[in-house]
Structures are given as C-alpha cells and as structure tokens.
Write a structure and sequence with these properties.
313 residues, mainly alpha, 15 helices, 73% helix
C-alpha cells in the first residue's frame, strides 16, 4: 500500500484492516497442534527405543536381571565373531544383487506399460498386487514353488531339458532364490513410481525426437532415462537401504535359520537370533548399532555417486 493510499483511506478502514501477525500466530499454533500427535508418536516409538538400544550396547543386560556397564566389550565381541562378518557379507551380496536387478526390471516394466496404455491399465494392478500382500504369507507359496522334488520351478526346468536346482536347499542357490522372491514381491512399488515419473515427461520433447527419426531405444536411453534420473536415484537409495535391512523374506524362506550353511544369514536375521533366541540383548544392540553406521555410510556413498549422474531440470 502506497503512502497516498494510506492518506486517502478513512480512519475506520484503517482500523478494520486485520493485522497479519495474529493470523500467523494462529496458523503456527494450528500447525503445532496438528503435528504434535505425529511428533509424540515418533519420539515414543522410534527415537526413544533407538536411543535406548544404542545405550544398551554398552551394558550387559539379561531379562529379569540387572544391567552392568560393559564398555566396548560387546563391540569387540562382534568384531571377532565370524558369524557376524558372514552375515554382513551376505547382506552386502543381497544388496549387490537387489539394487541393479530392481533398477533394470522396474525400468523395463515401466517402459513396457507406458508404451501401451491399454496394457498399462490392465497390468498395473497385477504388478502392484504382490507388493500389498504380506511377505510371510506369500513366502509360503514360494516355498512350495522352490521345492526341489515337486516345485513348479524345477518342473519347468525339466520340461525345457535343464537339470533341476536345489534352490533353498543349495548354499549356492539359496541367496539368488531369496533375491528372486524379493524382486517379485517389491518391484511393483518401484514400477508405480517410475510410471508416475514417465507420465510427467514433456510430450513436446518426445514428439520432436520421434519426428527427427529417433527410435524407441534412442528415446529411452537419450531422453527418458536422463529426465527420470532423479527418480532412478531415489529408487536406488531406497532399495539399498531396504536391502541392508532384509529380514522378513529371509526369515520366512529359510524358516528362521539363515541356512543352508548360513548362506542366507543376513545381519538383521543374526541380530534377531542373538536377541530373541539366545537372549543376548546387549550383544544384539551392539551389532545393530554397527549395522546402522554401515547403512549411513553406504547411503552417503550412494548419494555421493548418484548426484554425479543425476540430471535435474
């Protein structure tokens, strides 16, 4: 409002105009009231248990007994535990197989569905359906499919003249079998995210490339993938974090053992066994703290690499 307008206004109009400060105060109070339940929930069920678990790693605690200060002895014990290192190596192997496979398959499925709108409408629900089903429930069906004697996968291999595979009974095939199930169960969510990103691409750019003679593969690799690279980066980070926290699928498919011969013993499954099977809560808390540090380090490395290959419009 200019000085002339303020002079020409009547005193009544000046008095009637509300001050912006009380409005902002009310909006702030309203926002605080709306956010308070979520904040209390996070503190009570996420942050406080995490802090208590980290503190527990520095004590020797057994249910029903007293807690005695143990310093770094639980961390030293974990570093000298060969099973802990085996579980960390299995977790890294699982992530190395999951992240590239997820990116390639989700991009292929999303590009296929995006190229055919009728197929998109029909197959979208089918692709997402495994993601909304419980992992333990669907793993029971996959246990039957992986059965070396009467499973459907070995029956298909015999039909095409290939030798049957031991799947979950073989130390060499058990982890790939878990990865195959995880891809089937979780890739629908990534395909949905990529379909959303592809639907927002500028049609003018794609149409210009098509008129210039660019084929489907050229448009995919030269235009589509660079434009959706932030979404691909997001999927890569989330898949990496989820892979380092693999538990439910491994627990169900290995029948909570991590076998055969500890081939599917991931870090989180080993921590669970130490805490809730052997009652070593402090030792499990120390391993969990070390796993969290590894997840932070891998996530930071992924972000550092991803930002160098991500194209932001």
């Amino acid at each position: 409002m200019s000085v002339t307008d303020a002079f020409l206004r009547s005193p009544a109009q000046s008095v009637a105009e509300p001050s912006p400060r009380p409005s902002r105060l009310r909006e702030g109070l309203l926002a605080a009231c709306l956010l308070a339940p979520a904040f209390v929930f996070l503190v009570a069920f996420v942050y406080a248990p995490a802090v208590l678990a980290f503190a527990l790693a520095f004590f020797n605690f057994h249910p029903g007994g007293t807690a005695t200060y143990a310093g770094l002895s639980n961390f030293h014990a974990a570093l000298s535990d060969p099973l802990f290192w085996r579980s960390m190596a299995n977790t890294g192997l699982y992530a190395l197989m999951m992240v590239p496979s997820t990116l390639v398959l989700s991009v292929a499925l999303a590009a296929l569905l995006q190229s055919n709108r009728r197929l998109f409408r029909f197959a979208q629900s089918l692709v997402v359906l495994p993601y909304i089903t419980p992992a333990v429930g669907t793993a029971i069906g996959w246990l039957w499919m992986y059965n070396p004697n009467f499973g459907i996968l070995n029956a298909l291999l015999r039909d095409v003249g290939l030798r049957p595979i031991g799947w979950l009974n073989s130390p060499h095939w058990a982890m790939p079998a878990v990865v195959l199930y995880s891809l089937w169960h979780g890739i629908g969510f990534d395909v949905l995210i990529l379909l959303s990103a592809m639907s927002q691409l500028p049609e003018g750019v794609l149409e210009s490339a098509r008129m210039d003679g660019a084929g489907p593969w050229t448009r995919l690799f030269r235009i589509t993938l660079p434009l959706i690279s932030p979404t691909l980066f997001f999927i890569a980070v989330m898949t990496t974090i989820g892979s380092l926290q693999a538990f439910a699928q491994v627990y169900a498919l290995s029948l909570s053992s991590g076998g055969p011969e500890n081939a599917t013993l991931t870090a989180l499954l080993y921590i669970y066994q130490q805490a809730f099977t052997d009652g070593q809560f402090s030792y499990a808390a120390a391993m969990a703290a070390m796993l969290v540090v590894c997840i932070f380090a891998v996530t930071a490395l992924t972000r550092w690499i991803g930002h160098r290959f991500t194209f932001y419009q």
